[in-house]
Design brief:
Length: 65
């Protein structure tokens, strides 16, 4: 999976964060997560929600690359 930061100036649209199901307003720093095997399933996350999700999925282990 590839995690790409999106800088505020690059965030021109509003997105729905799958972590908290709230919108990420345009102009907000966030991350885009693309699974390597399912590139169509790219999702925009609040950075904090993504970190929580990583802990939920992987606990204290490092995420696989
Ligand atoms: Zn969120």
């Amino acid at each position: 999976m590839t995690v790409t930061p999106v800088q505020p100036y690059q965030a021109r649209k509003e997105y729905l964060c799958p972590g908290c199901e709230r919108t990420i307003p345009a102009g907000t720093f966030h991350v885009v997560v693309v699974p390597d095997d399912l590139p169509d399933l790219r999702r925009h996350w609040h950075q904090g929600c993504w970190h929580k999700e990583l802990r939920r999925r992987y606990g204290s282990q490092s995420p696989p690359r």
